[in-house]
Structures are given as C-alpha cells and as structure tokens.
Write a structure and sequence with these properties.
Elements lengths: L1 H8 L1 H24 L5 H12 L5 H8 L3 H13 L3 E5 L7 E5 L1 H21 L5 H26 L2
Antiparallel strand pairs: 1-2
Length: about 160
C-alpha cells in the first residue's frame, strides 16, 4: 500500500520521465533512420513549417521560444541546404514567406513515415483496446493540465 501511495504522488514525475524517454528515443530513432545532415532543431522547424505553411519568423520565435537571430540563423542554414526558400508574400510584396522546397517536403514525408514506425514500436505490445485507453487517458490528463495552467495564468 505504501508503494502505491508513493506511485500516485509521483504520477507527474512518471509522466515527465516517460515523455523524456520517448522524446530521446524518437530523436535517436530518427537520426539512425533518416541518415541526413539535419539537426533536431532543424527537423523540428521543417516539421512546424510542414504543419503550418503560413507561419512566419515571428510565429517560429513564439512557438520555439527562440530569439530573432536564432530563428534567422536556423532558417538561413535550411535555405542554404536547399530545404527552404524565401518567396514574396502575395498579399504584401514587401514581406517574404518561408516555404518548404520539394526537398524539404520529401524530408518531412519521410520523417513522418519514420515517426509512425517508432510510434508503432512503442505500442506494439498493447492491444488495440489498450492503445485506445492509453490515448483517452493521456488526453484527459492533458486537458486537466491545460485547465490548471489556464487557472494559474488568470491569477
């Protein structure tokens, strides 16, 4: 009973450790299966732009918590590697959009396949019912955490 009480009190720590293990495992899995020169941060940026094609440098700064100069350097390195290009924005020709090239899109599509393989390995010993339960419980915990965060930020 004592160990069960201790486990209940450390649920947040267990979730944090699991998330960290999954993140590091995924980074290692991607690195070993992608075989390219992309850093984790560059890969995250390509993924972000793949999911948010209208995003600009300011959006990237906010989402990644990086300085303007760090975002600029990150984008510049991906432009010089052929993963991104700048295009003039149609709505305001003075602005430049950051756009994935065919090489950038192909990289992201491959990364998604590799991530799917990794995620399938993570749940390979769970039944479909257990996977659905896990997803449902994680969503409940996430919603509760967001609610607490929202309440605390309103204080």
């Amino acid at each position: 009973i004592l160990s069960m009480e201790k486990e209940e009190k450390n649920l947040g720590l267990a979730i944090s450790k699991t998330a960290k293990c999954i993140r590091h495992g995924m980074e290692a899995w991607i690195a070993s299966h992608m075989g390219d020169e992309i850093t984790t941060q560059q890969g995250r940026l390509l993924g972000y732009l793949y999911r948010h094609p209208e995003a600009g440098a300011a959006d990237i700064q906010l989402s990644f918590g990086l300085s303007k100069s760090s975002v600029s350097e990150l984008i510049k390195s991906l432009v010089s590697s052929g993963y991104l290009v700048y295009q003039k924005a149609e709505e305001d020709r003075r602005q430049r959009r950051i756009v994935l090239t065919a090489k950038g899109r192909a990289h992201e599509e491959n990364a998604h396949r590799i991530i799917d393989q990794y995620e399938n390995r993570l749940v390979s010993h769970l039944s479909l019912e257990e996977q659905a339960t896990l997803e449902r419980l994680m969503e409940i915990v996430k919603l509760n955490a967001e609610e607490v965060l929202h309440e605390e930020s309103d204080k």
